[in-house]
Amino acid sequence: MGVRKLGDPVPGVRKPGDAPQRLREAGRCGPGEPLHGSRPKVALHYPWDKVDDWSALVDYAAEVGVGLGTLNSNTFQDEEYKFGSLAHHDPAVRQRAIDHHLECIEIMDIIGSQDLKIWLADGTNYPGQGDIRRRQDWLADSLAKIYAHIGPEQRLVLEYKFFEPSFYHTDVPDWGTSYTQVAALGERAVVCLDTGHHAPGTNIEFIVAQLLRLGKLGSFDFNSRFYADDDLIVGAADPFQLFRILWEVRRGGGFDPATGVAFMLDQCHNIEDKIPGQIRSVLNVQEMTARVLLLDVDALQAAQEAGDVLGANEVFMDAFYRDVRPDLAAWRESRGLAADPMRAFADSGYLARIAEERVGGAQAGWGA
After folding, report:
1. CA-to-CA distance for 245 and 210, rounded, in angstroms?
2. Model confidence over 226-235: pLDDT tens digits?
3. What is the pLDDT of residues 300-346, one digit of tens each?
4. Is residue 4 pLDDT above 80, yes or no?
């Protein structure tokens, strides 16, 4: 399970040192499995989640029953990065951004994180503002210098976003650019697909299929969008899209741990309570995953090979419309978990309790 990463360079949304609080929330059921039965893991942002003692944070994470996952770099907040970071025209700024990532790798070595995820706000707002081609060269050179320090069990994961905060051109706007850059680095460089980072109408499941086919799909940032980078609960805007995406994950073998695909939540719970929002997100992914696993592959393939358009679509839709909630409830109960995680959390009183405990404290963000 991942954490929210802002698409805009807005400071103050999370203050340094919030990591222990978020670990407590991720491991809210104590050591062992959380309410929904999925393995809890928290992705960190540096320097937002900076602590004085990283080894102590590892111990604390184990104590509350969660793991430490992807480490996300931050080269979009400081004023020096106004015109870019790894693709900046000034070599000194590029070097500062490179050094930040090397520091991230040192932290990864301590906390045991496998993935260094890079999302860049780099780009321009006006034609002629920057040299698009040279910026790609500068980016490639910067990434190569970072990649040279990636450990044998670590990966560099390059995320893309088609616009915002830059509006004329973004230096990593699409999966093709991300793929081109990571393919030049080596086998331990892969692509992160954020489901909210595409233009309207984009066939995201095609991208999933292609990246899996090429062996370059490193991770998902799951969320939902209506208009742009909305970062809503995954599956909320278009449940069928989530189903189609997860079908291509199954079709391409992405559920096999050997492929290394990481499944994360990257959302911003602005008006709903954060923890129930996270639980609902996990349940949505679980339900759609169960549906794609129940899809009759043999019947689908037979219809496809017979040119039976409507028959193939019927097989597909039958799986999508299947109500798997009773089966998942029974699966949870078989593991000693609550059949209905949302109700169990509401009945626990945990949300009211932590709200009371934090009276007088400093809010970390928009209800976070």
Report:
1. 12
2. 999 999 999 9
3. 999 999 999 999 999 999 999 999 999 999 999 999 999 999 999 99
4. no
Would you mind telling me the total number of residues written for the chain in this entry? 368
285 closest CA partner among 198, 223, 196: 223
How many Cβ atoms from other residues are within 10 Å of residue 311's Cβ? Answer: 15
The distance between the two most distant Cα atoms of the chain, rounded to a whole number of Å, is 67
List all residues 6 or more positions away from 272 whose beta carbon is below 8 Å from its beta carbon: 233
Give which of 83, 109, 110 is closest to 97, Cα–Cα. Answer: 83
What does the block give as tokens for 131? 């040299």
The predicted-structure confidence for 254-283, as pLDDT tens digits, reads as follows 999 999 999 999 999 999 999 999 999 999
Q: Identify whether the C-beta of residue 27 lies closer than 8 Å to the C-beta of residue 34.
A: yes
**Long-range residue pairs from 247-253, CB within 8 A, at least 24 positions apart, any chain:** 247/205, 247/292, 247/295, 247/316, 248/205, 248/206, 248/208, 248/209, 248/212, 249/208, 249/212, 249/292, 250/292, 250/293, 250/295, 251/209, 251/212, 252/208, 252/209, 252/212, 252/213, 252/217, 253/212
pLDDT of residue 17: 56
Regarding pTM above 0.85, the answer is yes
187 burial (CB, 10 Å; 0-12 / 13-18 / 19+) is exposed
Token pair listed for 274: 């954060």
